[in-house]
């Protein structure tokens, strides 16, 4: 009963009108008024100012509203947690991920998610940001995870992880003795970059622009792995996500270098088509990836 009264109170506060609140909750105006009257008697304070055409919260009402929102949110969370306990989450999620995320970030996320929700079937498509963007728009992908910023009226876009981009050189390169570089160190270097439409390509171009560099020669390759092998072979240098070079740095085949003047960072984004139905399995994945525990693990790249 308390939860229901709080819901009525919050609805009146947000609609600023008893009649519209009644329409929202399928209650008559007298019924709404009676519930508010009971609450005002309980708190021994006037909660609404009805002196003008709109219904406004009093100072006491503002306090109750703040706590009521929290109580209702906690009640919903309790219901979800109990439901998770007694009802198995099932369904299928089709993921799309741009290459760095798909190769290095998403597998460990999906492994942890599967342990928590073993009955959910997972499918993953990997491509560049432009491809994942298109597939999310046309509905062939439920959840996209991309490295470049995207915009569309039908897309809900939210950042979920900050990524650091570093310059990579082979271990025997003249710059490998350094940890920090300045633009002058990079002039006359051949840069190996991803194809147009790649989020990594866009981030690398932004980094070059920030450093005031226009490469004299660019080699374009279609995958992160191909670029790493080309750099190891001495064909050039490249910008790459820290996520993608953990193995090579451990084996000392590649050396990461940072811009002396500033870190080069970008955001990873979750994208969803909000005009299409989102299954409970999808909602659980979003809750999972944005949870404090998972976010802490991602930031530490554990």
UniProtKB/TrEMBL annotation:
InterPro entries given in the database record: LysR-like_Sec_metab, LysR_HTH_N, LysR_subst-bd, WH-like_DNA-bd_sf, WH_DNA-bd_sf
Residue ranges occupied by any HTH lysR-type domain in the UniProt entry: 1-58
PANTHER family linked: HTH-TYPE TRANSCRIPTIONAL REGULATOR, HTH-TYPE TRANSCRIPTIONAL REGULATOR CYSL
Native source species: Desulfotruncus arcticus DSM 17038
Keyword Transcription regulation: yes
GO molecular function: DNA-binding transcription factor activity; transcription cis-regulatory region binding
SUPFAM superfamilies to which the protein is assigned, alphabetical: Periplasmic binding protein-like II (SSF53850), Winged helix' DNA-binding domain (SSF46785)
Pfam families noted in UniProt: HTH_1 (PF00126), LysR_substrate (PF03466)
Keywords: DNA-binding, Transcription, Transcription regulation
Protein name (Swiss-Prot/TrEMBL): DNA-binding transcriptional regulator, LysR family
Family to which the UniProt record says this protein belongs: Belongs to the LysR transcriptional regulatory family.
Keyword DNA-binding: yes
């Amino acid at each position: 009963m308390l939860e229901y009264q709080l819901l009525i109170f919050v609805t009146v506060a947000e609609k600023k009108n008893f009649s519209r609140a009644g329409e929202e909750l399928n209650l008559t105006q007298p019924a709404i008024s009676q519930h508010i009257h009971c609450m005002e008697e309980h708190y021994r304070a006037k909660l609404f100012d009805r002196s003008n055409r709109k219904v406004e919260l009093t100072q006491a009402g503002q306090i109750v509203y703040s706590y009521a929102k929290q109580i209702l949110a906690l009640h919903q969370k309790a219901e979800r947690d109990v439901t998770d306990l007694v009802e198995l989450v099932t369904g299928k999620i089709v993921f799309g991920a741009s290459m760095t995320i798909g190769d290095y970030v998403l597998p460990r996320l999906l492994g942890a998610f599967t342990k928590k929700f073993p009955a959910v079937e997972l499918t993953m498509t990997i491509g560049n940001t432009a491809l994942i963007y298109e597939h999310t728009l046309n509905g062939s992908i439920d959840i996209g995870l991309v490295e470049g910023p995207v915009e569309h009226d039908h897309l809900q876009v939210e950042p979920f992880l900050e990524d650091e981009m570093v310059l990579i050189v082979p271990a025997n390169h003249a710059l490998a003795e350094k940890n920090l570089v300045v633009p002058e160190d990079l002039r006359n270097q051949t840069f190996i970059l991803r194809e147009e439409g790649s989020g990594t390509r866009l981030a690398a171009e932004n980094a070059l622009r920030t450093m005031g560099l226009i490469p004299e020669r660019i080699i374009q390759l279609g995958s992160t792995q191909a670029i790493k092998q080309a750099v190891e072979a001495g064909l050039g240098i490249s910008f790459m996500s820290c996520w993608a070079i953990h193995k090579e740095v451990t084996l000392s085949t590649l050396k990461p270098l940072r811009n002396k003047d500033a870190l080069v960072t970008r955001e990873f984004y979750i994208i969803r088509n909000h005009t299409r139905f989102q299954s409970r399995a999808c909602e659980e994945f979003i809750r999972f990836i944005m949870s404090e525990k998972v976010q802490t693990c991602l930031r530490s790249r554990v």
